[in-house]
Amino acid sequence: MGPPRNCFSARQWNASTVRWWSAFTPTRWFGICRGKPAKRVEVNALHRGTLLVLIGASGLPAAEFRDPKPPAFVELRATAAAGAPNAAARDNPEVTFHAAPGPLASRAVTGDWAAFMGPTHNMFSPETAIAREFPKDGLKPRWELKKGEGYASPAVAGRRLVFFHRVGAEEIVECLDAESGRRFWQHRYATAYRDRYGFNGGPRASPVIAEGRVFTFGAAGTLHCLALATGRVLWRRDVLEEFKVEQNFFGVGATPLVEKDKLIVNIGAPGGPGVVAFDVRTGKMLWGADDQWGPSYASPVPATLAGQRRVLVFAGGESKPATGGLLALDPENGRVDFAFPWRGTRYESVNASSPIVVGDRVFVSECYGAGGVMVDATGKKVWENAAFGMHFMCPIPLGGHIYGVINHGPSDSEFVCVEAATGKEVWRHQPMWTEQVTSRRGPSEMKVGTFRASLLMVEGRALCLGEFGHLLWLDLKPDGYHELARTWLFAATETWTPPVLSRGLLYVCQNTKGALNGEPPRLLCYDLRGE
Q1: Per-residue pLDDT tens for 352-364?
Q2: Please, what sign has the CA dihedral across residues 71, 72, 74, 75?
Q3: Which domains, and CATH codes, for the chain?
């Protein structure tokens, strides 16, 4: 009796083999896969009763998964869509226009926000000459779009802003002028998605813009590639149906990643593939990887680890027992460098905070029990901190420390700073204050705070969007929490969509009806252009 001789991957062993291996063997073993050169495999009995296999630098070969239904596709015609002038846009009946934004400062550095979490995939903005004070009478929107259901953030390329939401029984992709809200085009299609937990039925995954194309991934698994210039469908796939994936807790929630000519998607098909690369031009599957973990709500991010280009996927969907973890993949072929299990034990736990890269290390976290963990470029654990777990917020690595908003929230959400090298907690703080409000019942006081907030780094400071519509400038330092400025954009719950900054304009989603004034959910554009 002994371990399987044809493969090192624990996920291909049955339960009895795993029990035997855990009970009767040492924690380290060197062996030879059948027909393959020798390499080192380290086996650790992991927390939560899961087995972790750390594979050496040669990694696992990509599995051979077949494309179940290659789509028909249309070639994209050459166009200068991203730079198209405002004159091409039409009046938008769903937009209220207030005032044109001010001019950009001559020294301003600006850029696109074409992918989820921005150009560097970690909520750091390269923009400069951004206003650091808020007007005394509050920050007023330049335009606002009456939005439907959904938690997706917009994507911006040039003067074109793409927004993805749901109105009635349709998911809508629309392309707007970023400075006025005027409409270039709109694409609508039917959806029957219903959220079984009572949250809204709109899309969770944000649109992605790349090479004149727009990619959207709806809550029910409809994947579209559209022409940025016209909105024409270039190809589409019904991913859940094609790959036989059951609806996850809150539907589809992980935004795809464009890496060169590939659209990388965490689909979590039963028995694999867990991650798929589609050809951005044709929609055909180029490779599939992983057969153990379902789809999460964390988006894949690119990284360079030990000099090698990789894609990091924090996977893990609905399963009993709850399973999931961090995958490091070669984007060229889907080869798995390592698979590091990390998931809370609760059935309804989710992995929703995207990985962040800290040098040659990767940090992932969740808030249902496991907390946060740092691993190196080979997938070996460096440290863990069970009290430093993000729900769906992106933590910020800055100056040898990591700053994050922890816990499930809202009442227990806190700002925490830890040392990036050790995971040791430096400080924690829960911002709270009192607002004087006036409602239909008259004036009163309301105790509020940031709660499950999003952070966006700009010129060394953090823009913080609070869960109930507050916007703050923060100075994040190891010596504590420093609030520099604060304004209240609106009084509404579920402000969970990360803000977007492009060309000095800030885009914020109000996802629920206003609690004080009754205004509808909106996409709002604010002018942060400094002098």
Answers
A1: 999 999 999 999 9
A2: positive
A3: 10-45 (no CATH), 85-527 (2.130.10.10)
